[in-house]
Amino acid sequence: MLDQQLLQALEQVVGEAGLVRDEQRLQSYLSDWRNAYRGKAALVVRPASTEQVAAVVRLCREAGVALVPQGGNTGLCGGSIPDDSGTQVVLSLTRMTQIRDVDAGNETITVEAGVLLQRLQEAAAEAGRLFPLSLGAEGSCTVGGNLATNAGGTAVLRYGNMRDLALGLEVVLPDGRIWNGLRGLRKDNTGYDLKHLFIGSEGTLGIITAAVLKLYPAIRSRTTAWVALPSSQAAVDLIGRMRALCGDRLTGFELMSRQSVEFVLRHVAGCGELFAEPHPWYVLIELSDTLPDSPLAEMLESGLGAAFEEGEALDAVVAGSEAQVAALWKLREGISEAQNHEGPSLKHDISVPVSRIPAFIAQADERLQQAFPGVRIVCYGHVGDGNLHYNISKPLGSEDAPFKAQAEAIMHLIYDVTAAFAGSISAEHGIGQAKREAASRYKDPLELELMRSLKQTLDPTGLMNPGKVL
Amino acid sequence: MLDQQLLQALEQVVGEAGLVRDEQRLQSYLSDWRNAYRGKAALVVRPASTEQVAAVVRLCREAGVALVPQGGNTGLCGGSIPDDSGTQVVLSLTRMTQIRDVDAGNETITVEAGVLLQRLQEAAAEAGRLFPLSLGAEGSCTVGGNLATNAGGTAVLRYGNMRDLALGLEVVLPDGRIWNGLRGLRKDNTGYDLKHLFIGSEGTLGIITAAVLKLYPAIRSRTTAWVALPSSQAAVDLIGRMRALCGDRLTGFELMSRQSVEFVLRHVAGCGELFAEPHPWYVLIELSDTLPDSPLAEMLESGLGAAFEEGEALDAVVAGSEAQVAALWKLREGISEAQNHEGPSLKHDISVPVSRIPAFIAQADERLQQAFPGVRIVCYGHVGDGNLHYNISKPLGSEDAPFKAQAEAIMHLIYDVTAAFAGSISAEHGIGQAKREAASRYKDPLELELMRSLKQTLDPTGLMNPGKVL
Fold this sequence. Notes:
The structure is a homodimer.
Chain A: H1 4-14, E1 19-20, H2 23-26, E2 43-45, H3 50-63, E3 67-70, E4 89-92, E5 99-103, E6 108-112, H4 117-126, E7 129-130, H5 143-148, H6 156-159, H7 162-165, E8 166-172, E9 178-181, H8 195-198, E10 207-214, E11 216-217, E12 221-229, H9 232-246, E13 250-257, H10 258-267, E14 281-289, H11 296-309, E15 315-318, H12 322-333, H13 335-340, E16 345-346, E17 349-351, H14 357-371, E18 376-382, E19 387-393, H15 400-405, H16 407-420, H17 436-442, H18 445-458
Parallel strand pairs in A: 2-4, 3-4
Antiparallel strand pairs in A: 1-2, 5-6, 6-10, 7-11, 8-9, 8-10, 12-14, 12-15, 13-14, 13-18, 16-19, 17-19, 18-19
Helix pairs in contact in A: 1-3, 9-11, 14-16
């Protein structure tokens, strides 16, 4: 499929080890880990250095061949999967795995795009520091992908998104030139902030090859609790209360509806009821501190005590061991998998202002039940980020097909309500190919126009991950 | 000077109260507060709403008239001062002073560009929250200016720059259209992050008219200390130690050389020596917490005790009252004013990686004393940000004129050393007109080219604050 001359030139750059052509070996690069998206590719190229990436980009540009940058392939929106044409080249960064520098005195680490998030966390720990980004795919996802998609997760409440953790980038531009923006500076006001343009652009403006990232002090105390609540409003009230009391010691605040927890209890081995009776909502609260003997349990007790008095909280369990901590997180993290056992599920990753979470849920629930009676709403998420995974399972005992046929209508209903609350239709998953149409429908046309003009400016030939984002 | 038709059209938009033409009243808009930069203007326009700003921008664009957006006029690089042509129109945002919304549940506040930083801090406090940005000019500077210049200050160590405090913006684009990006969302991954393009662009890409900003929990305990150190390396070691121990409770860590403190002792009334003998370096340490009775003094003692043992710290005073806290900060904040009493001073606002501060100081000091014997180095700054105000006063007893004639050579020497340590020639003050040439000399040409292409894309007629930044 690929021009022989180009193929030879690419092989000269990356060597035989840097090319994947074998049909069998190609497969894992053509589909995401959930197998939700599948494409074709002329070739997979795996450069081992920034200079090789630059050379590959230049060669492909000269030949007019589109590139699809790819990391751990764990994205949920198909951003790293090529299209069906078979003409695109996948540029995998997974051979760029060097940790170039750890500067403990500057509280920074410089890593290449192909480093696994988990490896980065470990390297930080080896330096007595914390790299805080944490998400389900951390054992498989790469730093480059985390940056390209501005990854979120459960620690955003305290530490921000991946965007907030980056001080500098190295990027191969669409014309093959290398921008060395690998500055480890906390303050630098010498012009437009270019790094923020590339972060979250999903490889459509250039290829991130390395980054300088912030490190944080290691955590030496932690307390985790599971709390039953009467309403989602109680969750918003409780996070306000805990935040005012604990400040940055509040590092986790995860919301789960009863329906979400029921699915986990039914399908995930080793998870059991925590209270004598069911409650409509639960939150998982995590406090942590750099102090080895921080009185976190006392702070939690003090906050929860007041919450019980106000009727914000109904019951609570505080983990007494690491095993119990793990069990609580398993209840939370099992939701996504558990839902798959209940038939096809429609997953949405929305955000609204934190204060509007209860009204959003009330309105979305009501309109959904009116329009699609019996659908089961699996609502959970990160309260402090206003980020809900507002997922839908088919009505109990119904067939898959009619439910699947309603997927788009259900999505539009949820996005309509999200828009009415000034929210986002993709809080942390990005756009990729999955939400391109929805973005063009729900985003401000002026904003889309500005995005298009930036794309045109930086990638005039349109060969960087075409068909994604815009 | 201005076309009568345009003048009438502008008056129709903003009313008589929104125009300043009187020579006397014009003066304060034509010069910054230090009177370091002075320009001329055809007119000052003071719109009172976003729609009025948009209409002014449209009218000026049609007439081909350049606009200079202006806030509190407290910038240090002349970014808000018009040129000498007398053809530019100053667009002052100081009538846009509405606090549009305080959403305590979302921990956000929405304010217009003309709101004073101090007023914003007060509004946050009234809501039981903290707005953390803090800098010398806070009583006069505006939120719009803080955003346009990505302001820094003394709280960046813990809370980041102004960029990190903004969730959403409202911007009047160079063509007069209004981009409403006033989203109060912690997570929104639906495309390129446009707000970061406008923040720090000093009005050259558009005019920021309002913003959604983050609020933080109120601070309820605070401990402040003044510590004598043997070296700047000790400051870097000590901040690492305190950060590992206290985490985010470490909210201030300001470095001062003995020379800096001596100037304050000599020129600022009410400041006295704190220790029996002089020491080469001092740091002001501030710990703070959301807990009302946080054991900060014990933590400080524990950290300093270890530092004394390691020889990192030589002596310390812990403030025992609010008056003593104020006295310590006065010693720190008096430096800039004190230096003015020692004749002309050359001010530089550089940053390097934190770990390289000692080597930077050693090399810059040595090269300066070799090249310009006798100059007095007034070095102070924010250790956690790697940000030094590395200022120079003339040799004792020398004339002003020969020293002033060396200003550019001294600046280049300091910037050369900064560049050698991968630093920034403008850490927090921006570029404005003051550092435009230096930026073109010290920034990566590729980065300048990218900046120029973004400017061309967003402001093709070049009428937004021409002659600034680029």
